[in-house]
Amino acid sequence: MAKQKLTRISITLPEETLQALDIMVDDQGFDSRSQALVDMINHRLIAQQAISNAVMVGTLTLLYDRNFPNIRIQIGDLQHQYLEQVISSLTVQLDQDKVLEVMLLQGVSTELDCISQQFIAIKGVIKGHLELMDAVMPPLQQNE
């Protein structure tokens, strides 16, 4: 992969903000202030893309209780209903009752958010989180 061209900029911050930034850099293990700022800017740019209804890729992480009646069937039915957006999934049994499911999604950001909310709303889902990225996967091969 080609090395990215970097450009130096200068910013002015209140002293308290700079101190808080330095603490965050240390706490989160960033190599530098620059790396932390790039990460924050990228998060903001991704959020802006999501608002603008861009096609994005993301992961939906669900933690659910497998003992709820038909929960696996409901999740499977929703995955089938959104076959074009749900690219892949991984299911891991964490303990006797809890299951972690991670789905790879791609589509229009607002559509992915709506789909994710449907999964999260299933009775028995303990928690769920959609994480969008500013990327798109290459087209998948289709059987003819």
Structural features, described:
It is built from four helices and four strands, in the order ααβαββαβ. By secondary structure, the protein is an alpha+beta fold. It has two domains: 15-51; 55-133, Alpha-Beta Plaits, CATH 3.30.70. The protein has a four-stranded antiparallel sheet with strand order 2-3-1-4. A hairpin with a 4-residue loop joins strand 2 (86-93) and strand 3. The longest helix is centred in the N-terminal third of the chain and has 19 residues, at 33-51. The chain is globular. The mean pLDDT is 90.
User: Between the first and last Cα atoms, what is the distance in angstroms?
Assistant: 34 Å
Q: What proportion of the residues is helical, as a percent range?
A: 25-40%
Model regions low in confidence, pLDDT < 50 over at least 5 residues: none
For the report, how would you describe the main beta sheet?
4 strands, antiparallel
Classify the beta-strand content into a percent band. 25-35%
Please state the overall shape, judged from the principal axes of the Cα atoms: globular
Question: How many runs of DSSP E, i.e. beta strands?
Answer: 4
Mean pLDDT: 90
Tell me the radius of gyration.
19 Å
Give me the CATH architecture of the largest domain, please: 2-Layer Sandwich
Helix- and strand-based class? alpha+beta
Keywords: DNA-binding, Transcription, Transcription regulation
InterPro entries: Acetolactate_synth/TF_NikR_C (IPR027271), ACT-like_dom_sf (IPR045865), Arc_rbn_hlx_hlx (IPR013321), CopG (IPR002145), CopG/NikR_regulator (IPR050192), Ribbon_hlx_hlx (IPR010985), TF_NikR_Ni-bd_C (IPR014864)
Pfam families: NikR_C, RHH_1
Family: Belongs to the transcriptional regulatory CopG/NikR family.
